Amino acid sequence: MRQFITGFVFFLTGIIAAACQPSSPPTTQSPTPTTSTKPEASVKAGFNSELYLIDNPDVPDLIKSGKFKSALDHYEKAGKFGKNAKGKRYETTFTGTSGNDTVQGLGPAEHTHFIGVGYIVDPAKGGDYPVLNTSLGEGEVDTLIGNTEGENEFILGSYITSAVPKAEPFYVGKGDADYARIKNFTRKKDSLYLSGLPEQYKIESAKGMVKIFTKEGDLVVIVEGVDKLAFGELSKEYGQFAVK
User: Which of 56, 170, 200, 214 has its CB 3.0 to 4.6 Å from that of 137, i.e. a possible disulfide?
Assistant: First the structure.
């Protein structure tokens, strides 16, 4: 799901400021009080340039050489459907903030991740992949809209990185008042990812949608347009499991 890059972080630190440009996909935000791991003054909902640069280590070199102006420029011209020099698809993530967001992509793309909370790269945390979430979604109501083409992955909890030692679920703590709503989800093509263990959650189907709760009854996500989903196997590396 994620590529871990060794010896890349210090190079990335210098290029992020020059390479990251804010995108302007359709988003709406309404501040909601929450506990954040880091101030979010620079975090905006939409295309996440920092994650794009660390997940695709060839892109900073391409920007530095002048072939592309920024991470967003590379994504729009090459990353949506292209592959890197090793034949692998480019990793792309659209993220939210610690408020209520609508997060969606910039048109059709081959493979895209959607996250309702903010995500940053913090080299001060150390390690080969110092990526971390800026909130846990408590008190937030986010709408994640998948692309109609390509594969979509909706991330509903933090995953283990060199900056995050333990995976934790999002949208837990406020009952039915905090959750993610997912649109444009296609079974057998798209996936949800939950943190923890499958036995910590339960699935309920009703009226053309699926709701996933914690075992204690805390609503985590509403998936529109499907009538059933099933839990997959746990990835111990990331502390998450897929739901399809």
Answer: 170
Q: Is 143 helix (H, G, I), strand (E, B) or coil?
A: strand
For the segment 185-219, what is each residue's pLDDT rounded down to a tens digit?
A: 999 999 999 999 999 999 999 889 999 999 999 99
Distances (CA, A) of 70 to 2, 60, 117, 130, 150: 21, 8, 23, 21, 23
The Cα 209–Cα 79 span in angstroms is 32
The residues that bridge with 46 in the sheet, in sequence order, are: 95
Residue 85 CB neighbours (<10 A) = 6
Given a contact cutoff of 8 angstroms between Cβ atoms, the answer to whether 3 and 86 are in contact is no
Q: How far apart are CA 162 and CA 48, in angstroms?
A: 19
Structure tokens at 197: 């263990």
Enumerate the domain spans of the chain: 9-243
Rounded to whole angstroms, the Cα distance separating 20 from 54 reads: 12
The label of the residue with tokens 């804010």 reads: 22
Which residues lie closer than 8 Å to 166 by C-beta, 6 or more apart? Answer: 160, 239
Distance CA 19, CA 146 (A): 26
Q: What element of type H or E holds 10? A: helix 9-19
CB atoms under 10 Å from CB of 234, counted, come to 17
Using one digit for the tens of pLDDT, what is the confidence trace for 31-88?
433 333 444 445 689 999 999 999 999 999 999 999 999 999 999 999 999 999 899 9
Q: How far apart are CA 198 and CA 215, in angstroms?
A: 10
And the tokens for 242? 């897929």
